[in-house]
């Protein structure tokens, strides 16, 4: 029977997806700035055999709503925010199998230094690193990095294509597999290490990689772009794709397109979900009402304004919103129009903010939530779910203690981790990317 994959979807901040939950008296999200909070989370997830912790990140503040970051600051909407890469070694030290998918915006990175950091993490974790490839969507991030505004949407993907081939060469081509010999008088065979000379439209460097081949060489490659250009990129590079919600029929069409673009390579497709779980239906509905009393509409609007590129403060509640393409997350704008119809309004959007986000929760007993997840797999052909937090840590404990056993009883979730690297666990294949992926084609040996 087809196995379901589960990632915890989190961010090194107080308010991630469901805005306002930090005000709940049992929520401990404000401990985001302590290592203990993250090591406890990692241990909880590994106890539940969760595949990975998918860590989101942004480089700017959400300042589209009203033209200021005030609403984001008031409601802790992904600010304050830590660098997620710094959390991984501590979590890896207290776990053995949990994977880590780290979001890094390549638009403001240099291939050489970025490749070195990711290789370091892959080495230190024994091959448990993934990279969520993003090109950014915030003008505030561009300004923080010294630019007037961000590049045009499709141009960012052109930049990304060049970046990918540059880091593939560093990860896969620079060192032969047998270069490190650890022999008296010769730790590394110089003949098996080569320079990478890259002279492209955006990047130029002449260097050998500084890190020897790691368990995976190239980290597991995640990507979340669902626009036309984003799907072209995913078909070329991604191993795992994170898609937005919507109807199962709409997601099924998107998944079919993504699989066709990637073929003959296999890909894993994850869809976002927010479970509200309790032992009975009545208890779950009561928990939802309790959580809902703490949701923040203004925080949700500040978040939506940034990801959609639309300043909702300019609109009356029942005034149609201009949903023409923006330079933000274009697929999010398209998704809203599909779901709400042409001429949708701010009130229609806010009515979806059940728990302070556009993502409606999956509410019920373990059996009911499992039924819904299995329906997504059957009807939309997704492979798994990125599960967002509500009130933490109790939401993660409910997944581990209630949902996972239900899925295991149905034979659709593992009862033990498979051995090997993150890639081996996800794909039941080797630790390295295989042809025809361009990273494999860059390999020297």
Which terms would index this structure?
single chain, 445 residues, alpha/beta, TIM Barrel, 8-stranded parallel β-barrel, two-stranded antiparallel sheet, 14 strands, globular
List the helices and strands and how they pair.
Elements: E1 5-11, H1 35-47, E2 52-56, H2 70-74, H3 88-93, E3 99-105, H4 111-124, E4 129-134, H5 139-144, H6 153-173, E5 180-183, E6 186-188, E7 196-199, E8 204-207, E9 220-223, H7 228-237, E10 240-243, H8 248-262, E11 268-273, E12 275-277, H9 281-292, H10 297-308, H11 330-340, H12 346-350, E13 362-364, H13 366-380, E14 384-388, H14 394-409, H15 422-427, H16 438-441
Parallel strand pairs: 1-2, 1-14, 2-3, 3-4, 4-9, 9-10, 10-11, 11-14, 12-13
Antiparallel strand pairs: 5-6, 7-8
Verbal overview:
With 445 residues, this protein is of the alpha/beta class. It has one domain: Luciferase-like domain (TIM Barrel, Alpha-Beta Barrel), CATH 3.20.20.30. It has 16 helices and 14 strands. Helix 8 links the parallel strand 10 and strand 11. The protein is globular. The mean pLDDT is 94.
Biggest β-sheet description:
8 strands, parallel, barrel
In whole angstroms, how far apart are the ends? 37 Å
Give the proportion of residues in helices.
Answer: 25-40%
CATH architecture annotation name: Alpha-Beta Barrel
Question: What is the number of strand segments?
Answer: 14
Strand content: 5-15%
Average of the residue pLDDT scores: 94
Q: What count of helical segments does DSSP give? A: 16
Strand order of the largest sheet: 1-2-3-4-9-10-11-14
> Rounded to an integer, what's the Rg over CA atoms?
22 Å
Q: What does the overall shape look like?
A: globular
Q: Please trace the helix and strand order, writing H or E for each element.
A: EHEHHEHEHHEEEEEHEHEEHHHHEHEHHH
Name of the top-level CATH class? Alpha Beta
Secondary structure category: alpha/beta
CATH superfamily: Luciferase-like domain
Give the number of domains. 1
CATH topology: TIM Barrel
Low-confidence stretches: none
| Oligomeric state | single chain
